[in-house]
Amino acid sequence: MQRVLITNLRPQALAKLRLGYHDVAAVNPGLIYANAQGFRSDSRYGTHAAYDDIIQAASGLVWLNHQVSGQPDYVPTVLADKICGMQIAQSVLAALHHREHGGTGQHIEVPMADTMLAFNLVEHLGAAALETDGAFGSPRSLSPQRRALRTADGWMCILPQSDRNWRDFTAFVGRPELAADPRFATGPDRARNADAFYPLLAGLTGHHTSAQWQEFCDRAGIAAAPVLDLASAATTAYAREGGLLREADHPTEGRYRVIGLPVRYSAYPEPEPEPRPCPAIGQHTEEVLREAGFDPSWSATW
């Protein structure tokens, strides 16, 4: 019976349903019980509602956007929900490993606010890592000048990160003297002077086409990529060959697209099986009741 239960209900809702950890563990002590909610259950905000936008605000992410754009913008994707989903999966896998090697079941709490704050602080702890009064934030990441570069016919991201990359870049644009400029001579120098470095780059890329830049960067070993809209990114030859966006038949809606796995396993090299559509409402009710030991006809009384 030692299985996994994952819930994102708040403590008061779980208590009302008698589905709190202690309620369930009394029946199945080997259970791995993962509870994901907005804030730590033992904190002053433990009973507060939370959604992706709330967590973006509470974890400093909206502030980071304000530092760059001057506007308290949300990230245009449900970033907190997705990051926290991955944290739940990692935590459950760690608990499964623990249990399989002689451990026990346990209660895992994954507060979204804590998860996203830790995520944001990876680079943005900044000088505060060593100084109690040091400033938070990564100067390079927070530079308002950090953006894609205009080419003669489009936009690209070009990152001459290493010192050799930088020397090759400056030679290609006919400005080799910039490699010796003390503001930009080394990687740390360029990061420290990001507000000057990024505008400098922007002024050097407009005389070549995107194709010319890609050819040069590939040859020089400089990381580069064109700026793609989402539809183009999902349908490039690269994306198609990787099978990330797959097609399948839905029993009622016809042909549809589904997102495939973005990872590959050497022990499972076969293509992914045909995607299955999301189940209809109630499709598996009787199956689940039967598996749990209940009479499936019980559902007819609901």
UniProtKB/TrEMBL annotation:
It holds the Pfam family CoA_transf_3. It comes from the Bacteria. The keyword Transferase applies. GO terms for molecular function: CoA-transferase activity. Keywords: Transferase. This is CoA transferase. It comes from Kitasatospora xanthocidica. PANTHER family: BLL6097 PROTEIN (PTHR48207:SF4), SUCCINATE--HYDROXYMETHYLGLUTARATE COA-TRANSFERASE (PTHR48207).
